[in-house]
Amino acid sequence: MTLRKGFIISIFIAAQCFAAGKLSAQGMRDTIGSFNKNVIQCYEQTEKVYQGIAKAKLSTRPCSKIILSSTKSREAEANARHNRGIIYQYLDQQARAIKDFERAIKLDSSSVASYIALAQLHLKQENWVLAYKYFDAASLLDKSDKRLVANKQYAANKLQQAESNKNLTANVLLK
């Protein structure tokens, strides 16, 4: 999500609340300002992951504030969950990361980045079936990225190797 898009979405939602009488003019300005501050901070925290900033200096709070906001759009929540998932992954909180990526996909099923992140997490955990599933979904959405097809094939090969090893072990035990 671009920051500009996040601003436009928050302005639109706050304006709807104002028009419905749920917010005063000042309340609308405050809501937009607070929401946009959190969008920027959530994005900045995710950027820190890519810069390799120390884990102690990372916070999921700005992303969580967007998720909990009553004026968020589905797209804003999906992006906040994806970004928070990236942070959780970096902080070695894999279960939380998986949960956020899965929710991001439910909110925005066209998010190639969330499918890839989820596939990579499952690859790291050697869960070949789910890694294949999410690389497959990502490759269907982005047919031009040959790396997705290669990663999907890698997961399929690993799954096949795991199945072969199970069969060998079973045969040895039966003898």
From TrEMBL:
Keywords: Repeat, Signal, TPR repeat. Residues 1-19 form the signal peptide. It comes from the Bacteria. The keyword Repeat applies. InterPro entries: TPR-like_helical_dom_sf, TPR_rpt, Ycf3. Gene3D superfamilies: Tetratricopeptide repeat domain. TPR repeats lie at residues 78-111. This is Tetratricopeptide repeat protein.
